Amino acid sequence: MQIQTLCRWSLVLILLCAGQALAGGDEPAPSPSPAEEVFRLEQVTVSEGQQGTAFHLSGAGTPTYTVYELVDPLRLVIDLAQAELAAELALPKTYDAGPVAKITGAPIAENPGAVRVQFFLAEDRPYTVERQPNGLGVSFAGGAPASAAVARKLLGVTVEEGATGPVVHLRADGPLADYRYEELPPRKGKPARLYLDFAGVRLEGVPPVTEVGGLLARVRVGQRQEGVRVVLDSGRARLFRYTFQPAEDGMTIALSEPSDAAAVIAGLLAGDEQGEKKEAAAPAPAAASDQQQEAEAALPDTFGFAGYSGQRISVDFYKIDLHNVFRLIGEISGKNIVVDEGVGGSLTLALDNVPWDFVLDIILNLKGLQKEDRFNTIVISPKDKNFVWPKAATDAIAFKADPITIKKRITTSKTLVVAKQIVEAGRRLEAAGDRAGALARYEEAFKKWPENGALARRIAALALVDGRLNAKALHYAKQALKIDVSDGEAAMIAAVACANMGLDAEAKEYFDLAASGPRPASEVLVNYAAFLEEGGDYAGALAQLERNEDLHGDTLDTLVAKARLYDKNGEPAKAKIAYRAALYSGYPVPPDLAQYIRARLAADAQTQQTSNLHSEETKP
After folding, report:
1. What are the beta bridge partners of residue 370?
2. Start-to-end Cα distance in the chain
């Protein structure tokens, strides 16, 4: 079996089946009776033991709850359905030592009859939440004993201007080679962020915040139980691009501006990997195996490849009403959630560190439901019910062009000045993370400045990547191409929008246009290859990647893509060479991918050895 990085729908089915196994099938939980199941939280107590710190949320009744984690600040959130707080309960509670700094509790305004209890964490320790006869037990593992000798010390953070943008130098008493990193998208006023966790590292005299400005707003550092966390806050609407380079005295992180084309790649054809955790420590060699199942077990995390790009959460639902679950997903995702009156029942489900949109698909699959996702709104209904979007909203997205009139042709300098002011207002909104507001401003400006192809292209990119508004993106990409037919970036946006809407013939025409110049961008060729691979044209996809290699050179992603395509095209010998090239390319290879490649090469070697032995035995 081959790495499935682009076959989005088959992977969705695989992941949903896996989720069903995790959830223990679709056995319906009994619906609680409101009169009997109200839980009255009366007391919060804490005890210390050899195993760690335990909190007990006790009261009258049987609790029905969900559990999830949030960051900035790091906290454990428990939502109690059909619950109330006793008048004598004294919250918030603060603690001077231990894993929890503060516990708060309050009714959930948008969910009458529910209560939210939050544990604000001073330390990031493993925990368990267990339902007890008269409440809930929340147990945190004991803190790890201090090491006799700290592996590394982080001594300082400096930022210098490099060739493409800021270069962050994390200065330590040796190389910082053992780390994990994760991207978080912007939401609710918080910027896009890059997290790096360094195990076994201690801070020594480093200020908690280093203000920078521009592409990189600031660098934050903090001591955690297992090491040091470094957070890089973006100064733009999207996260910057970055490369890591371990050094003898720590690590350098080179940053560069995000591009519209890079954003299109990150979010659509090949699956958005944003928000996925990646491991960057040196991988241990995989054991040789001739079992294909072992090679499959070594596959890289496929959430991003399957199109799941939501914020990662850990959830523990115990007989929770489905409507409360959907309220939680709406709060985490920032989307409007509309639930059909025919949806009901309860759910018991536990998932750890998965995207919220994956959690939603699991629930829909288990409960026989479907979703329609448009205009930042998700409509959830039974599978046998059709939902028709309001005609006015559908018409609005089509953006039918009005006939050109004399007034539109007579563009005064005053109109142009106003348009530029509106564009600047849009840029400020985009920098603040309000991309929906920025999109509205840019559209308003384009009506006054219709000859601005760059503005049309920017609207198309925002609509496609941030709003998933394919029709709008296609409309404005076409406007940009009317102004400049050689605009390869606009052609690629139009191609991706068409592909997302199932207009494969049009998508191919726009990809051909985007790739028609003497030196098309690498993003265009890689995306075109992904599109052709999804359509089963493996030879065509390989041709695009080979052209990309000639013009721009290979990356780890293109090397692995070529290996996968050789496999699909029935050329295993070339696939083996490509996999080996990826493994020894010099690019940082994630441990799970390196393990898969080694297992694959070992399996090929064993197959060849078996074939040779068989040939020797059959010789006369």
Report:
1. 381
2. 35
Tell me if 8-29+310-382 shares its fold with 402-611: no
CB burial of 297-311 (b: ≥16 within 10 Å; e: otherwise) equals: ebbbebbbbbbbbbb
Q: In what order do the strands lie in the sheet with 152-161?
A: 201-203, 152-161, 166-172, 250-256, 241-247
CA angle 202, 208, 214 (to 5 degrees): 125
**Can you give the pTM of this predicted structure?**
0.34
DSSP string, 66-100: EEEEETTTTEEEEEEESEEE-TT----EE-SSSSE
**CATH number listed for the domain at residues 37-140:** 2.60.40.3500
Distance CA 89, CA 39 (A): 14
The predicted-structure confidence for 3-25, as pLDDT tens digits, reads as follows 333 333 222 222 223 333 323 33
CA distances from 216 to 172, 256, 433 (A): 21, 9, 14
What pLDDT is attached to residue 348? 80
- Name residue 498's amino acid: C
pLDDT at position 154? 92
DSSP collapsed to 3 states, 270-306: CCCCCCCCEECCCCCCCCCCCCHHHHHHCCCCCCCCC
Residue position matching structure tokens 């720590």: 250
Q: Among all chains, which residue has been given the structure tokens 């035995």?
A: 617
The CATH number given to 402-611 is 1.25.40.10
Cis amide linkage into residue 520, ω under 30° from 0: no
Q: Which two tokens stand for residue 60?
A: 């009258």
Contact indicator for 544, 525 with CB cutoff of 8 Å: yes
Q: Burial code of 430-464, b = ≥16 C-beta within 10 A, e = fewer?
A: beebbbeebbebbbbbbebbbebbebbbbbbbbbb
Q: Which two tokens stand for residue 544?
A: 């695009």
- Express each pLDDT in 336-352 by its tens digit: 888 888 888 887 877 77
Q: What is the largest CA-CA distance in the chain?
A: 94
Look up residue 565 and give its two tokens: 């395509």
Q: What is the pLDDT of residue 320?
A: 77
If you compute the radius of gyration of the chain from its CA atoms, what whole number of angstroms results?
Answer: 27
Residues lower than pLDDT 70 in the chain: 1-37, 71-72, 143-151, 187-189, 225, 259-309, 318, 385-414, 466-467, 603-620
Rounded distance between C-alpha atoms, residue 276 and residue 263, angstroms: 16
| Spatial contact of 69 and 313, defined as CB atoms under 8 Å apart | yes
The domain segmentation of the chain, as residue ranges, is: 8-29+310-382, 37-140, 152-258, 402-611
Nearest 5°: phi and psi at 501? -90, 5
Q: How many CA atoms lie within 13 A of 106 on its CB side?
A: 6
If you search the block for the tokens 């919060």, which residue do you land on?
A: 44
> What single string gives the DSSP state of each residue in 314-346?
EEEEEEEEHHHHHHHHHHHH--EEEE-TT---E
Q: How many CB atoms lie within 10 A of CB 14?
A: 14
CB-count burial class (<10 Å; 0-12, 13-18, 19+) for 233 = buried
Which CATH topology does 8-29+310-382 take? Phage tail protein beta-alpha-beta fold (3.55.50)
Describe the strand order of the beta sheet including 39-49 as a list of residue ranges: 83-85, 39-49, 52-60, 135-141, 127-132
The CA distance from 511 to 527, in Å, is 9
Q: How many alpha carbons fall within 13 Å on the CB side of residue 302? A: 22
| Both tokens assigned to 386 | 């059709």
152-258 belongs to CATH 3.60.21.10: no
Contacts of 406 (CB under 8 A, 6+ apart): none
